Amino acid sequence: MHARDTERETAALRALLDLSAQLLGAHTVREVETVLTDATLRLMRSRYVYFLSVTPRQDALLLTYASGEADPPLGLRLPRRQGLAWQAALAGPAVLMVDKHHIPGSAVRVDRAPDQHLLYAPLITSHQELLGVLTLGRIDPPFSAQDQALLLAFAHAGTVALERAREEQKVAQAREDTLLVLGLAMEARDYETQGHTRRTVALSQRLGRVLGLETSALDDLRQGGYLHDLGKLNTPDRILLKPGPLDQEEWTVMRQHTLTGETLARRVPGVTPGALQVIRSHHERWDGQGYPDGLAGEAIPVLARLFSLVDVYDALTHQRPYHAPLSPKDALTLIQAGRATQFDPALLDAFLQVVQDGDAES
């Protein structure tokens, strides 16, 4: 073997290892598409790389990500059997290589795009399911047989990563559905609270994003929102649905729902420690007069402080057994009265802005 051939094989192996390492850090389908496309552009020295995804019914290829000097717009749709990408997909799993001087009339051309040497690599699973097509182009030099082999390896690595990401997505969605069902189970006991779970989760996510929370914290907040009232499943109807004020004994029972909820949530697979803090501590108060632990100020977990604002606002603005709904304006006035006693002042300011902005948009 010549030294130059050895160097090329070594470079190709490094490129494949580099791509594989980057794909390990990609956990969603979109992240895999992005990493695969960007890395292929760099490692294959192409003018552009496109990722064409398969539509759900597999009747078209859709341009979902482009890297480099992109000519067609994102969202470009190729109906089944139209263009060289489909030719490669239907003939796969080999890579289709086309010289720029011999581009067939069946190719889909983009206005003002120069003639280019082309490579098409279908991403096909072991069960013969088409996931997409990786498309490369460069003006010169022509792609080589080694380029063809390297892109095939890239396509295999991308296929494995996409399958993993899709499975992770299914698991995450199943968990999300489970948490929502548990939240709705509580609402099923009382018609007047229906919608509370979805509303508080949605509003707390808006507030969290405005505050710049990281993805993991938003996940904690969402889980905690779904399950924050889980412990009320153990609260007797005579207390939970009582139309008037609770007496001291009834309040003692009601306050147990945060601890019961935390205990039950610990048994749900995948529930995070941050979510458990929301469930346990969302009735704590800034002045230390809340429950179950009498925490005060910043000793209260920040996500619980945040969620308490959302929870109280939604309870005030919707029908409950013990009160008629308030207007958003009256509810906000009442919440502002709790500044530095019930609520964290800094979070309260952010919350007021989010709610007011939301009202302006609606």
Automatic annotation (TrEMBL):
Pfam families listed in its UniProt record: GAF_2, HD_5
SMART domains: GAF, HDc
Gene3D superfamilies in the record: 3.30.450.40, Hypothetical protein af1432 (1.10.3210.10)
CDD domains given in the database record: HDc
Domain HD-GYP: 171-362
TM helices/strands, residue ranges: none
Protein name: HD domain-containing phosphohydrolase
Biological source species: Deinococcus hohokamensis
